[in-house]
Predict the structure.
Amino acid sequence: MHALIFRFFDICMLRAGPQDLPASPLLLRIVLAMNILVATLVSFPVSGFDRALVEVILDILLLSALLYAGLQWRGLNARFVQIFIALMGTGVIFGMLMMPVIYQLVAANAANDTAPAAALVWWGLVFWNVTVFAHILRHGFNIHFAYAFVVAIAYILLFWQVSDWIFARGG
Amino acid sequence: MHIHILGICGTFMGGLALLARAMGYEVTGSDAGVYPPMSTQLEAAGIVLHEGYDPAPLDPAPDWVVVGNAMSRGNPAVEYMLDRGLAYTSGPQFLAEHVLPNRWVLAVAGTHGKTTTASMLAHILDDCGLSPGFLIGGVAQGFGISARLGKAPFFVVEADEYDTAFFDKRSKFVHYRPRTVILNNLEFDHADIFDDLAAIQRQFHHLVRTVPGNGLIITPTDDSAIDEVLAMGCWTPVERIGEGGCWQATDRVADGHAFNVICEGRHVARLDWTQTGEHNVSNALAALAAARHAGVPVAEGIAALGRFQGVKRRMELRGEVAGVKVYDDFAHHPTAIASTLQGARAAMNGAGRLLAVLEPRSNSMRMGVHRDSLAASLQVADKVFLYTPADLAWSPAVVIDALPGKAAHRQDIEQTVAAVVAEARPGDVILVMSNGGFGGIHEKLLAALNKV
């Protein structure tokens, strides 16, 4: 178990890739559940519980669908489980790192104050998270890192668009 | 460079010796049983053979001692080698380090059909002018040999899951680093070295982990044991053989000697060939998939298989006397026995009777691992003759009782021959199955039939 947890940290440090994880459906279910919990807790102070939960589930559905379609298109669908475990598992780590920062930022905002150090840390974590996302895609799809980085950014923009569209329609 | 091979007369080590010789190495070897055809094949290649395991051939010391997996501690040559600190390696490791570098390795693994599928694949590549190297655990009729250096880049290797050497208990195939892998099927076997199916699956997963991301793994659609292996983690594209897969056979005749090849949903061509049996249809599709990965157009591969002459000891017709045909087959696992018998039955088109003669010779068979499934596998035969040497670890009654009026056993080869010949009638097919020489029973049967 310790080795597995350290494997996720290694992926976050770009020292390992999704290919170093087991393709275990059980592990996938565990990291998926943890990701939903942690990501919801991170979004909750900003979006409220209902919207946070919907956003997290939407993110997971959209990401898994696009990932599966992309791997199918490249003939690499045997990699799906490992890549998705990597994305979910590293997502848990980043969620736990972001949690105290987001609460600090929300608290500062509520007090009509600013927290420049926390904001800097926040954006640093976001950049690191996107880098790890691209690192996993690079290995998963056998593509250049720069291309993977663009794909990661494109996915985030797409998710925001879809999320805004859904919540705008929902009123 | 001088290499000395301990256990040189086995199929794998003998083939390795021929490859090393073709590379210009000085090769000598020792074995407990030095006899034709392997001994003549090796001596014709300029390899000096020593009967037995006297350490004398290891003085002066060769550059490498290559140790066969049948060697164990206590063997005089092995003990001498260790005491003197001679440089030693295993056969698979020697192959990997001296023959396979810079080659595109195509490996055929699985419980059944390795030799046949590897032979088909080597034949396709050769027929299409690619002159592959190969090391196969049998002799393809078209090549007449079991190993050849060939030309770069392609090298076809029969990837055996048996252990490597007394000092390296990993499966042989983890050494080969293939780019293209066929996983034909996976069942529990080799009970002498594996505790259960999971232990074999772990070794297969080690193999899967060595295949590069731009390689290819070819597997059937309906083998749950292989699916479990791939579920442990697979970083390589997978092509499936069979219903619902990338490769399918349709409109097949009953005995499998003709069928349409469907690739990615498209009908490519009809294969009409000399092979029979459901298992050979799957083997052919797997070989075509591997050849396509190596760049052979599917239609050319199908045309090549139409010229495939089969493999020695795989439904090999050894002779026909007075309307009775005697076939030889290597089948030694219930699944292979059932498949071989079904193929033979279908090829007979309802004429004559099928007489099965079986020697339970493999370690798993002798240990009785398959005794409960053996009777069912023999059900297709009209008569079953079981050769049961006195040291068999289980009672053949479990098979005989399950096949009432159909099966009998003998503890002596001469008695087995006499019983089979007494039963045989014109039009019958005698199918001898063993993974060993079976005491030359084929010749004895033909000679006895001649005297009737």
The helical segments of chain A are 2-12, 25-47, 49-74, 80-110, 116-141, 145-170.
